[in-house]
Amino acid sequence: MATVKLWTDVEVEAVPAVKTVFDDIRATRKSDFVNNFWRALANQPSLLERTWSSVKQVMIEPGTLDPLTKELVYIAVSTANSCSYCVHSHTAAARTKGLSDEQYAEFLAVIGMAAETNTLANSMQIPVDQEFLIG
Amino acid sequence: MATVKLWTDVEVEAVPAVKTVFDDIRATRKSDFVNNFWRALANQPSLLERTWSSVKQVMIEPGTLDPLTKELVYIAVSTANSCSYCVHSHTAAARTKGLSDEQYAEFLAVIGMAAETNTLANSMQIPVDQEFLIG
Amino acid sequence: MATVKLWTDVEVEAVPAVKTVFDDIRATRKSDFVNNFWRALANQPSLLERTWSSVKQVMIEPGTLDPLTKELVYIAVSTANSCSYCVHSHTAAARTKGLSDEQYAEFLAVIGMAAETNTLANSMQIPVDQEFLIG
Amino acid sequence: MATVKLWTDVEVEAVPAVKTVFDDIRATRKSDFVNNFWRALANQPSLLERTWSSVKQVMIEPGTLDPLTKELVYIAVSTANSCSYCVHSHTAAARTKGLSDEQYAEFLAVIGMAAETNTLANSMQIPVDQEFLIG
Amino acid sequence: MATVKLWTDVEVEAVPAVKTVFDDIRATRKSDFVNNFWRALANQPSLLERTWSSVKQVMIEPGTLDPLTKELVYIAVSTANSCSYCVHSHTAAARTKGLSDEQYAEFLAVIGMAAETNTLANSMQIPVDQEFLIG
Amino acid sequence: MATVKLWTDVEVEAVPAVKTVFDDIRATRKSDFVNNFWRALANQPSLLERTWSSVKQVMIEPGTLDPLTKELVYIAVSTANSCSYCVHSHTAAARTKGLSDEQYAEFLAVIGMAAETNTLANSMQIPVDQEFLIG
Q1: What ipTM was estimated for this complex?
Q2: Which domains does chain C have, with CATH numbers?
Q3: According to the model, what pLDDT value does residue C135 have?
Q4: What is the phi/psi pair of residue B3, to 5°?
Q5: Which of the listed residues C7, C72, D45, E50 has the most CB atoms within 10 Å of its CB?
Q6: Eight-state DSSP code of residue B56
Q7: Percentage of residues of chain B with pLDDT beyond 70
């Protein structure tokens, strides 16, 4: 149903630029499973490389935000952008990173609340308070 | 520039249903400052009450997600929904809740990354992997 | 601040294809005021003509939905699309078509509610019930 | 295909906080059918309660906007937010509230028109006319 | 799964206003295949006519933008609006108009990049440079 | 009005990681003008570097899509995402790359048309034709 071919492992093996990225995905995640997102991007090797390199740097390398927080932020954006694929894959990722049912319930309450107040603020075209401006 | 009047404190004092909510906002936040969002909602007392009651329950009452995480999720949604008011007010709120420059930089990287991969997944109409489905 | 020139009445007078549309806008609305949307579209005469012809047919010619309902639906879409210009112009239009403060308060409650439940349904990726499907 | 379990009636019976809401949904709507949205929210009892209480107040209790107008506004927002579930469920609801084929055709024309002009106004970044501003 | 009936050729034959448009679609595209979008719009003859007339004028009549560029712009908008149907139909159309795999890969990189920088600019609420303003 | 400081040239000079990127922006574009987007990103040096590196690769390095087409696609996405900053900056960029008034008029017609049909397809939940599916 995709607009592009999803590469099988056999096809990946045949193209070194793609194989290198897939090998790194597997090594980094310590798992053999490579999800469809990367199998679709395999059609565009330079986009595949750049995207994986960014995802690895942003989502996987340690920083000051913990991994679960980053996943929740990711799901929030994906929900607002109606990306069904991304919501599914990152909700699954969040669960493997320890998301509890209680946290998920609170997360849903927050994104619902945010969407509601976004709509109210946008519809009433409320001007930003001076107090919120920088400098 | 709003589509509704922004209520002054004098106007708020004159309407008990509105005054009660404003008093609770001030008491709950331990601050005299009430931002324009609530001054706009004052035109719709029942919506004002229900919205404040929900925001208080979702964003302020303690739960299993820490307050800063909730603010980041809120900003993520507000950004994706292009709500300028909400981005300003909740970025300011996040800073008062301890958001560091480094965390903000990482947050921006995550929402940018999410928007990019949302777009790629939506444009290639990638089917959800069986592995991500529940049950 | 626009990306195009906003045409003055003097400029409009000089271009027959544009003048014809502006004359019809004024005659149809029984008002001399022509808002910036049309002054921006004047740069693209064929788009101006086609857009005005559609707006006139859809929003002004009588049908089975009353004019105020159509304005509310228009504002709802414009809010969700974060079109500041459209929210302002159509909220003003709704008021001239009789929108009361009480109706506006209820309208805001509905669009806020819709945005919240949209987000919840999209985030939990709830499957459509068989009962809702046609045929 | 959801990211959460959809509760069966047997599961609902076992949790009083959930059962109370489901009973009220059935009593309020005078129908035994409870759609998947609520079966998904059952995983988050406090969100379920708050959401149902708001939906009931906003969409069902009588006010100054008629029920069909509220449904049309709801579908308009849901369409703009690409919520497939919400479009399906509220289009079905609108039909039970009397939406005729002719009204639906006009509604589609309005939301299409709105989306088109939203895009034109946003792309040309048209400034809001002074005439549309409050106060 | 649609909210409306998709008209079969037999049903189309029976309604002259619909048949005329379908005949013109087939003649203009030099193909017997009429996709579901038009079969859904057949329920609303005046919307069908107006939409086909606009699509024909905008997308098919020769102008200063080449047909492939117009399709890419169309897919870009459809992706950002999460319209699965439109992404599929216009990606297919772009391929028949000569879209190569290499161009598609570059296109995906551009829309991903745009979505990422949109998010960054919206989240930091960056003010527009004077240099970009007209006049 | 931004949520972050916009770096002046003096501030840029003081931070080598930022100065290196700014120097490359100026050299690549053969212009001294550096727009606010980069002055905002300067607060996040690693995000600045990664973003510039991607923008340079995607938008500036020669490929199979011509530079003007890429700008039009960029504006299309930015409009749909309601990014005022991005619409302004890339419309200006498109003009420097040769966008004529006639092309801009056609471009606006296409994105308006796309938004309208996106909305119609999403609201009627039209199923994708088998003919559009790959494989």
Answers
A1: 0.95
A2: 1-61 (1.20.1290.10), 63-123 (1.20.1290.10)
A3: 47
A4: -85, 0
A5: C72
A6: I
A7: 99
